Amino acid sequence: MRWRSRTWPVTLRDDSLRDLPGGALVLRPLVRSDRDEWMDLREHNAVWLDRWEATIPEARPGTRGAPPRRPAPTFREYVRLLDAAGRDGTTLPFAIELDGELVGQLTVSSITYGSMCSASIGYWVSEHVAGRGVAPTAVAMATDYCFEELGLHRVEVNIRPENAPSLRVVTKLGLRDEGLRVAFLHIQGRWCDHRTFALTAEEVPGGLLARWRSR
Ligand SMILES: CC(C)(COP(=O)(O)OP(=O)(O)OC[C@H]1O[C@@H](n2cnc3c(N)ncnc32)[C@H](O)[C@@H]1OP(=O)(O)O)[C@@H](O)C(=O)NCCC(=O)NCCS
User: What CATH number is attached to the domain comprising 75?
Assistant: First the structure.
């Protein structure tokens, strides 16, 4: 895999994927010119993604920490927000491209340094490419970047216990099951339990992508 840049914007590319013969998988920033393709992709996958979509809860009465809720951003605003999050170093908001076609999204979020040096990875792929190893390959590429370029020590993926396809992704990649987090994330309007799977840099000295390729 080649890195194109060490700071945001970052593009990661892999051309030699066993499950994607001849296919090039690219993780790159979303840009304004993706608008029409992105809108089509989201529209075609609305039902596929709906039950896993994160939501923002109402602020608890009497509290004032949460930022005010805003209407959904336009695509242009969305790209600008992702770019700002990438540049402030807390997030790597990648679009996933397979053979030049947008097919999903992988976000490395909650990037923290200090005593923790950790991050959280979330992802989705379009239904029409499901089952081809796109998500595990993308997770392996992003994890290697976090460990080898950002110097992070740990990555985690949080998955609802009923999300069998996503559980397969982390199982195939060999992430450790760290157990259940009760009411961990707000999904589809309610707090939902998640299982946490994690990996530290010491567990994959030769890189996760290399381990995934050689399985
Ligand atoms: C979870 C998800 C990202 C997996 O991506 P992927 O690129 O298909 O991953 P894989 O190719 O490794 O397939 C994983 C499992 O999905 C299942 N699967 C395969 N094809 C499928 C299809 N057409 N429809 C549904 N599930 C399928 C299989 O159980 C597969 O495991 P296997 O390789 O042992 O057979 C994808 O299903 C998705 O985007 N789902 C909706 C959003 C979501 O759940 N995001 C994750 C939230 S934690």
Answer: 3.40.630.30
Tally the domains of the chain. 1
130 lines ligand 1 (CB under 6 A): yes
**Ligand 1 atom closest to 136 (CA):** 12
For the Cβ of 49 lying below 6 angstroms from any atom of ligand 1, the answer is yes
Out of 7-21, 180-194, 201-215, pick the least confident.
7-21
Say if strands 12-14 and 176-187 run parallel, antiparallel, or are unpaired. unpaired
pTM over 0.85: yes
At residue 20, the pLDDT reads 60
Q: Cβ(187) to ligand 1 under 6 A? A: no
What six digits make up the tokens of 77? 């605003």
Decide: 112 in ligand 1 pocket, CB within 6 A. Answer: no
What are the tokens at 173? 């990649």
- Tell me, what's the pLDDT at 5? 47
Question: Atom 8 in ligand 1: which residue has the minimum CA distance?
Answer: 130
Alpha-carbon span 167 to 131, nearest angstrom: 13
Residue 169 half-sphere exposure, CB side, CA atoms within 13 Å? 29
For residue 63, the enclosing domain spans 2-214
By alpha-carbon position, which residue is closest to atom 29 of ligand 1?
A: 165
Least confident residue range of 34-43, 59-68, 105-114 = 59-68
